[in-house]
Amino acid sequence: MSTSTSQTKSISLKAYGITSDTVHYQLPADELHRITIEKGMGREADSGALAVETGEFTGRSPKDRFVVKDDITADRVWWGDINIPFEPAAFDRLYDKVVSYLSDREVYVRDCFACADPEYRMGIRVVNEYPWSNLFVYNMFIRPEAGELKGFDPEWTVINAPGFKADPAVDGTRQYNFAILNFSRKVALIGGTGYTGEIKKGIFSALNFILPVFRDTLPMHCSANVGESGETAIFFGLSGTGKTTLSTDPTRKLIGDDEHGWTPDNKIFNFEGGCYAKVINLSSESEPEIYQAIRKGAILENVRLNPDGEVDYSDTSITQNTRVSYPIHHIENRQEPSVGKNPRHIFFLTADAFGVIPPISRLTPAQAAYHFISGYTAKVAGTEAGVDEPVPSFSACFGAPFMPLHPTVYAEMLSRKMQEAGTNVWLVNTGWTGGPYGVGSRMKLKYTRAMIHAALSGQLGLYTYDTYHIHSVFGVAQPRKCPGVPTEVLSPRATWNDDKAYYTMAFKLTNAFRENFKKFEQYATEEIRRGGPQRYAF
Asked: Which entry of 143, 243, 252, 417 is annotated as an active-site residue?
């Protein structure tokens, strides 16, 4: 484990236009922790972790994320509400204002890497206004050995100035906060927001362009783990679907919890050197590994502490998006280095609040591409005035806000790679059974774990009529039996007591799938289009 310390405590930033007299370079985690507390910018929790508040922004601001439209990006980026174009000249002017602002301040600099596979490793230099933001960088990116810092030549630079506020009328932003990627200058410029997730997602977004365009490598918003025999499992899923919970398995080693690449030679590598987990309602019983990782070196964001430093994880008075970041070496059961081989199983996790998708089903390559592009889960609406209606939610590639290219580019890469590697793809519903939200109940975690273990061990059998049933609405293959799971649980229709109500709800959801997919149809192949539900509502 690298400590990432250096005898050099300062560095010149004049090449970036920053002339600050006080530049702290590569400070150890303990020192950044101490400085943050001394400056009154954080408190120490009883666990030893540092607790900070990120200010007005406690999450990402997707409408304020921009990509500079230039010769590299103009004909490649999927422009629209997700990738909002920004003029190069406007970027240059705003950049100059930000570095001028930082030149009058104490700044913290860290050199680090993204991508655990040495062949794909990318050097990054991050300039932070706040010490705790620099500690976040230490936690989340890959920490260089001392010898690797000599002559460090970063490929990308992140300039992070939470206290700088843009003038929209002059600077071309929507409001005073912004996160802008410039692929020609290889700079991520972030201002007006203290939310640290913008830093990690800025580099993730850059890699989501660089790796498929220039390295034939698929970037994925997913978690991954590896079994005793060396086979890798990948878990895609949006918030609330169980991605972190299900990939954190005592019988398998964690590769990473959020961002990975899939190489042409079928290796899976973590982009990061740490984890950034939600802590709302966290307990030692529900998430023991995450709970135990919250110790000295970790950063808690936007949680409430009592006078004794004890955290109330149920308190959402600041935000529901309470978080913790910690270096991956805080997790004992981890893969070192964070690289896996032989990807054998992919799990698409969805929390279907309509209660109609099978708890586990095997997908064909076309179905896998369709569901990957769709990125479905469901949100539960409020219960005011007795309204308990689930709302479908789609995020292409299970991470649309971070994907600069059109979703079909990633889907076609996934389809090709899974066929070349002989990978099985499973759709897993961690949501409702026996009826929709308000009528049925949430799928028991022990059943979902049993289904995933059965898939990983091959106990779900070959894809035959005797072992699988083709769902009459969604067209997916649901297993007839699974060890440790009651047979009736495997059929969502069998868990309802009203067939007509079940099919009405199922067709309602298929119509939502079809409506969402319209914006992708002209880009998708006929094979992928036929991977979705083919039956129409009556």
From this structure: 243
